[in-house]
């Protein structure tokens, strides 16, 4: 079923921008506050297969630590959520819907286009924690994995007849963020290890016992050690 994730299709646009925090007051007087968001103002976008094209995209996302890095990620790979797919303008735009039962108002939901920056950064940090705990064989990994059970489902399951296999099952995430989490969990289930670079702390797939994610990081780390040693020598 995880192989079917490669068929996940997503959209990326030619232009994104960051908009400032905004608020909305519902009909019942309740105040809704929303932080900085990344929106697209493009009329349309290009569809592609992100998980097929980038087998370790989950690791790229886990290395996102700042607003600027998140903005660059969205610009390259597309928005992370359904809200991010919705074209908007810099002016706050809201869509409010009400859940009713027997004529009684039970809840009001406010839809705001754009990826919520604070939320997406927290999700990236969560993915990084998962990978670091997995690398250290930490018992805390199980607790983080169990959090998935109390959050909304990451995907739906499609079941259809197949003339060859008899039945075909596939997982269908609703957005890129959920697809990245599934890709991450799949990598762990297949025994793919991730390690933190000794120089920059970025996560990478280590080969032959490498301690650095790039030659630049290796050189920077060794040069820094030599500078410290020279100062002590003085």
Strand content: 25-35%
Distance between the termini: 61 Å
User: How many DSSP helices?
Assistant: 8
Global shape: globular
Low-confidence stretches: none
Number of beta-strand segments = 13
Structural class: alpha+beta
Mean pLDDT: 81
Q: In the residues, how many domains can be counted? A: 2
Instruction: State the oligomer.
Output: single chain
**SSE pattern:** EEEEEEHHHHEEEHHEEHEEH
Radius of gyration: 21 Å
Write a structural description.
The chain is an alpha+beta fold and 234 residues long. It has two domains: 2-193, no CATH class; 206-234. The chain is 36% helix and 26% strand. It has eight helices and 13 strands. The strands form six sheets. A three-stranded antiparallel beta sheet has the order 2-5-9. A hairpin with a 6-residue loop joins strand 12 and strand 13 (203-204). The longest helix has 19 residues, at 117-135. The termini are far apart. The mean pLDDT is 81.
């Amino acid at each position: 079923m995880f192989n079917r994730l490669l068929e996940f299709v997503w959209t990326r646009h030619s232009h994104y921008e960051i908009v400032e925090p905004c608020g909305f007051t519902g009909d019942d007087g309740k105040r809704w506050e929303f932080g900085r968001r990344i929106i697209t103002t493009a009329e349309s976008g290009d569809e592609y297969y992100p998980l097929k094209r980038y087998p370790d995209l989950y690791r790229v996302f886990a290395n996102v630590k700042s607003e600027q890095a998140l903005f660059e990620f969205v610009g390259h790979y597309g928005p992370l959520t359904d809200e991010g797919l919705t074209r908007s303008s810099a002016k706050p735009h809201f869509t409010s819907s009400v859940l009713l039962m027997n004529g009684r108002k039970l809840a009001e939901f406010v839809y705001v286009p754009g990826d919520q920056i604070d939320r997406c950064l927290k999700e990236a940090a969560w993915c990084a924690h998962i990978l670091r705990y997995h690398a250290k064989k930490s018992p805390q990994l199980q607790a983080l994995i169990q959090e998935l059970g109390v959050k909304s489902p990451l995907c739906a399951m499609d079941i259809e007849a197949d003339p060859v296999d008899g039945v075909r099952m596939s997982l269908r995430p609703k957005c890129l963020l959920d697809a990245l989490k599934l890709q991450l969990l799949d990598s762990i289930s297949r025994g793919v290890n991730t390690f933190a670079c000794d120089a920059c702390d970025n996560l990478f797939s280590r080969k032959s016992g490498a301690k650095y994610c790039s030659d630049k990081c290796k050189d920077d780390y060794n040069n820094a050690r030599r500078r410290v040693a020279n100062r002590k020598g003085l």
